[in-house]
TrEMBL record:
Domain named Major facilitator superfamily (MFS) profile: residues: 1-400
Protein location: Cell membrane
Keyword entries, A-Z: Cell membrane, Membrane, Transmembrane, Transmembrane helix, Transport
PANTHER family the record matches: MULTIDRUG RESISTANCE PROTEIN MDTH, RESISTANCE PROTEIN MDTM, PUTATIVE-RELATED-RELATED
Annotated protein name in UniProt: MFS transporter
Organism: Streptomyces rugosispiralis
Membrane topology label: Multi-pass membrane protein
Low complexity compositional bias, start-end: 472-483
Membrane-spanning intervals of the chain: 21-45, 51-77, 147-166, 172-190, 226-249, 261-279, 291-309, 315-337, 349-367, 379-398
Listed InterPro entries: MFS, MFS_dom, MFS_trans_sf, MFS_Transporters
Chief site of localization: membrane
Any matching Pfam family: MFS_1
Start and end residues of each stretch annotated as Disordered: 460-483
């Protein structure tokens, strides 16, 4: 492809989006450029402070738990208070808690403050995603979410490299730099990003159109199609989280170092930065269900391929396969969430979607560690391939549900609550729910079929060897579409 055509393609990828989106995008990029603490928290606790890998894992789980709690609460606040106030409060409180985490010494205090950091940092995500849905026209939303996700991964790649240099001057510098960059994000939002929450309908709620009525959490939970999306998102997110929990342990068991893990996992960030935007041009305006089906198959296949890896090159190849699935999944699924969300319920819907990733960051380390401890790494990778197949089947059923009652083509891009869905949509969503509910038992059966190949002591040793590298973890995954 000539330089002229590349330049034209790049121009088409970024043109036509509102100025407010680009300020929000800039805030996201700066936020991820300063995302040092989440990346190096486990290394800080184990190497600098001398705590065990088990304690570091507990702190990571509490960080994820805080994020899970805030996902739903901040979604409600995003609709009630507004996107901008929720985002500002989240960023200011994140700066305070991150700086505090650098000073606390007591292990209990560290655990508590880490949970608060997870809670405050994750609170921005529903607000950012709802704001993108507000200010970007429906036809451009997949591209906008892809650009935002690209900024997250570009920032992560740079911050991961810079954090090591900054940490050489002391980890406190790392915490304070993270807090400072978060404050800069708040300044940008305060000065350049206006409130985007749609005005409530004038007159009685009964006479207002369905998409303009007040939406509660009950409405979200009764929306079967949307909750099917959330459940399937949880399955895919649980797979992706294994890359930052189980993968470094497996590589350590194969005698590979933390540096080797860094090389393998860097393939993820480099590939996303290189191809996310061109691929998104292909994804735009296409039926999301087939794309999500393919993404689930690739994600499961990539992690299944890990069972056959024994060298850095093979591990990197497996990472490339599931990364392609992630590249397809992220903007497509976020665009679908925006499409299914009613105008005045976007915060709650985005909060529930964010919850799927937060719960995955909490469940994946526990489930992955338990399977590896009892059955070995190969059992986990085999079960991951099965879960990918299950998720793909769920997306096929979801596609049928969506086609049986297409989303309304209104400006909000949503379809309202699922309570009035047609019989075909209900049946399709019910099928998805049944498929997702069966995934745990299917994965367990696949795991049980493998023979025990690693003792608890070997896994523990590998965990200590890979703890620092694994700490970068959920940042790109959990941060999908987030600030």
């Amino acid at each position: 492809m000539s330089v002229v055509r590349l330049r034209q393609a790049a121009k088409e990828s970024v043109s036509g989006l509102p100025r407010e989106f680009w300020w929000l995008w800039t805030s996201t990029l700066i936020n991820r450029l300063g995302g040092f603490v989440a990346t190096f928290l486990a290394m800080y606790l184990t190497v600098d402070r001398g705590y065990s890998a088990m304690f570091a894992g507990l702190v990571g789980a509490l960080h994820g738990l805080g994020g899970a709690v805030s996902a739903v609460v901040s979604g409600v606040l995003t609709d009630r208070l507004g996107r901008r106030p929720t985002l500002l409060v989240s960023q200011l409180s994140t700066a305070i808690t991150v700086a505090t985490l650098g000073f606390v010494q007591d292990p209990v205090a560290i655990a508590v403050v880490a949970s608060l950091v997870g809670m405050t940092s994750n609170a921005s995500r529903p607000a950012v995603q709802a704001m993108i849905a507000d200010i970007v026209p429906p036809g451009d939303r997949v591209r906008a979410f892809a650009l935002n996700y690209w900024a997250i991964n570009l920032g992560f790649a740079v911050s991961a490299a810079a954090a090591g240099l900054i940490a050489s001057h002391g980890y406190l510098t790392l915490f304070l730099a993270d807090a400072g960059m978060t404050l800069l994000c708040a300044v940008i939002v305060f000065g350049k990003v206006p409130e985007s929450r749609p005005e409530p309908a004038v007159g009685s709620l009964e006479s207002a159109p369905a998409e303009e009525r007040e939406v509660g959490l009950g409405t979200v939970l009764r929306d079967r199609r949307f909750m099917a999306v959330v459940a399937l998102s949880f399955l895919v997110a649980t797979l992706i989280q294994q890359a930052y929990v189980a993968l470094p342990i497996a590589m350590g068991s194969d005698g590979l170092s933390s540096t080797d893990f860094g090389v393998a996992i860097a393939t993820n960030g480099v590939l996303i930065v290189a191809v996310q935007i061109p691929v998104t041009r292909f994804l735009e305006h296409r039926d999301p269900a087939p794309l999500l089906t393919v993404s689930a198959l690739l994600t499961g296949a990539g992690f299944g391929l890990t069972a056959f890896a024994g060298s850095v090159g093979m591990y990197a190849l497996a990472v490339m396969v599931w990364t392609i699935g992630e590249i397809i999944n992220s903007p497509t699924q976020m665009g679908l969430v925006a499409r299914l969300s009613p105008t005045h319920g976007r915060g709650r819907y985005q909060g529930m979607y964010t919850l799927s990733w937060s719960l995955a960051s909490l469940v994946a380390p526990l489930a992955g560690g338990a399977v590896m401890d009892r059955f070995g790494a190969d059992a986990l990778w085999g079960a991951s391939a099965v879960v990918g197949l299950v998720a793909a089947g769920g997306y096929v059923a979801l596609g049928r549900a969506l086609r049986s009652r297409p989303a309304a083509g209104r400006s909000g891009g949503g379809v309202g609550a699922g309570a009035d869905a047609g019989a075909g949509a209900d049946a399709g969503a019910a099928t998805v729910t049944a498929v997702v509910a069966a995934s745990a038992s299917v994965a367990g059966a696949a795991s049980a079929s493998a023979s025990a190949s690693a003792s608890a002591g070997e896994v523990g040793a590998a965990s200590r060897g890979g703890a620092g590298a694994a700490s970068g973890a959920g940042v790109p995954a959990v941060g999908a579409g987030s600030s």
